[in-house]
Amino acid sequence: DHISNQFACAFNAMGLEKNDKIAIMMINHPYYLHVWFGAAKLGIVEVPINTAYKGELLKHIINNSESKVLFIDSDFLGRLPLIQNDLPKLERIICRGTVDAGLAQSISMPISSIEDFFNFPDDSPTVDVRPSDPVAFIYTSGTTGLSKGVVCPNNFYLHTGRLVAQLRDARPDDILYTFLPMFHINAQLMTVLAAMVADAQMVLSDRFSASHFWDDIRKYGATQFNYLGAVMTILSKQEPRPEDADVRIRYAFGAACPPDVMEKMEKRFGFECLEGFGMSEIGIVVHDAIGNRRRGSCGKVLDEYFEVKLYDDDDNEVAAGEIGEIVVRPKMPDIMMTGYYNMPEKTLEAYRNLWFHTGDYAKKDAEDFFYFVDR
Q1: φ, ψ of residue 23 in degrees (nearest 5)
Q2: DSSP three-state, residue 317
Q3: Parallel, antiparallel, or unpaired for β 370-374 and 356-364?
Q4: Can you give the pTM of this predicted structure?
Q5: Of 24, 140, 46, 157, nearest to 93 (Cα)?
Q6: What is the pLDDT of residue 241?
């Protein structure tokens, strides 16, 4: 709170105002949180950028989001000279780390250090930031065309943080561990905000390392962690060690863990896996309940907050056991995206017939457990 107020004061001194956009291209680091929360206090929109992006992808996100300021690690600064003449809205660069003097001379925009932000007072902002105001643009992976900026209102972030904390029974004595990057909505909502609303602690690792993963878990006393994709399979292939059971993990939280791997990991390490279905546009809409899972399923609809159906290509609901596209709509305001930024035609396309079409396919059984099938 103290440091993010300092960062908010720095933003004010720059002349940034509510609804301005700032891009962040940084590895996992506490400074990322200071920038994000400082901006949020002023209603300034955070635009996370995948640290692997360069060239046209990087240019597209900076331009489409209309970002005025770019926060960047010095390791990535060399990607800017090739595109800087095609970034008409970008006004300045704030860098974390030492900047090479020769590289700085090749960049036409002002460059300053993020360290300067710690020299500002910690006055509390007085900006009226509402639940419906945007807090972040989360860009899609761009697998089906140009990356789209998902406009996330403040209430979407807070609702999802509270929901995740509830689903994983997060408590003040929990320590939530993530290795997922801060430019991904998973780390932001399912670790940072879940820990914040639960008054818990978190461990922000900067990468996944199979050889060091359990050492980290033990070192920090982590009680929960997030995973995606093949992570659990990779961890399951490690040779058993005498200290395997010597972990405090209660829950692992993720998606796409094969059922046989899940069973093996739970027996070996003594935790429970909880899986669900969600995406940047909708948050989490289907999820396991603690103590009530079905093998291979990602759970049931969180029907207090969402309607979720499975549709065929003509938007007719399919029967139990049949594969259909997952479509979603909220039961409460501002708990999903409000659209794709500067892409109204893509927004309309996604909300066909008043349902958000995920592009993902699943089936459900007679008891309404969902089973993810494919993109």
Answers
A1: -95, 145
A2: strand
A3: antiparallel
A4: 0.95
A5: 24
A6: 86
